[in-house]
Amino acid sequence: MKKRIFIIIQISILAIQLGLLLCFALRNEDSFQDTVAVNEALQSVRADWDRMESHENRTNLSYVVLDPEGEVLYRTGAGLSESVNRAIAHRDTILDIEDEGLVVGRLIVYNDSLKLLESRKRTVTLAMAVSVLVQWGLCLWYLLYLSRVIIRPFRKLKDFARRVAGGNLDIPLAMDRANLFGAFTESFDIMRDELKKARMAEAKANSEKKELVAKLSHDIRTPVASIKAAAEVGAALAGEKRTRENYGQIIRKADQIDALVSNLFTATLEELEQLTVTPVDMESSELTAMLESADYFGWAAIPPIPECLLRADRLRLQQVFDNIFANSYKYGKGEFREEAGLSGEERAWEGRGFHGAEPLSGNSKIDVNLRRENGYLAVCIEDYGGGVAAEELPFLKEKFRRGSNAQKLEGAGLGLYISDFFLKEMGGELLVENGEHGLKVTVRICLSR
Fold first, then answer.
1. Are 341 and 330 spatial neighbours (Cβ–Cβ below 8 Å)?
2. Boundaries of every domain in the chain
3. Mean pLDDT of 50-70
4. Does domain 268-446 match CATH 1.10.40.30?
5. What string of DSSP letters covers 382-414?
6. Which of 34, 69, 286, 445 is the most exposed place for a label (fewest CB within 10 A)?
7. Would you say 352 and 382 are in contact if contact means Cβ atoms under 8 Å apart?
8. What are phi and psi of 446, to 5 degrees?
9. Which among 258, 257, 239, 337 has a CA at the least distance from the CA of 297?
10. Helix (H, G, I), strand (E, B), or coil: what is residue 297?
11. How does pLDDT run across 376-403, given as a tens digit for each residue?
């Protein structure tokens, strides 16, 4: 409504200004002198011609009366044209005074059109100045109005959006239905309230999820403990060395599962930074058991371990080796990969024993080498899977990234990502490159200082 009134007033003022300009431009200067008054002055002079000394000006005009010789017989005031030449130059009105058909004198009526013109100029200028001032005043008022109803509410919305982006959902946005953003402020405040509700619901869901994970962890530990107990009994009763080794493998894996399940209460794969890594000093000889545990298909020949003191987390380092060997089993080539109807692990186990058995194909194996270098113990593990494309190597350690050769194989693309994270937390490093036969993964374990 105020906007409409402002536009109407501005248009009206503009029309007045244009009207003043047109009147001033189209006004004829010659029409400024009153013809009736001139005739009246001429008639009064004729009537008083014989007694000009007693003549009175009965009009509002200024004039001079001359005799035939050009002498002044009468003047209404000073500063008037007193000759014909001067009157012509001033554009005064010159009239002949006749008596019985003869010209007996002249009436020179002073032309005051210039004064009238100057007066009209001043009037128009003053009117234009007043109208411009009114326009400026209206514009200033409208700017203040826009600042109050648009700019200030918009700044409030901007500050509100900044608070919401920063996570502050407790301060409501004051509503003012009088300004243009009234409906928006209400909608934004409803959005804030809904976001707050969603955050509370998310927190509640996370709490319930953790509670559920804690319950599942407890439930999982129970059967794992039973499996471990049964394996311990079996190992005690077993007569053959191979059988006792198999039971020992089951016991070690049960312990590892128990340790991993305990992490579920505080972390998930989506929140990897919450997984604790606690490096401690450990003998390098412990790597033999870790590598043999990770190589549960027995594809690798574990070489002698250089004697040194390592700085690592046993549980996390075991996970690293487990992930690397699992990838080598999955992508390594061999006759079992071509057998139909079985999963990868089932094909590998078909017709085989535990650790130490030969792979079904001569080219399905894993090479393991160890060496000390620059404050690290490097464990190089290379499969016979042919490797991956060179341009894919830099991305293999990223989350959910897999090589093009893994399209038909199950997996989430997290093994190398998790392994790289664990090693960095232990001060080590994970290197991935193409070797002579396949993918070569180097686990660099920091030496204890």
1. no
2. 268-446
3. 87
4. no
5. E-SS----GGGGGGTTSTT---GGGTTS---S-
6. 69
7. no
8. -65, 135
9. 337
10. coil
11. 999 999 998 888 888 888 888 887 777 7
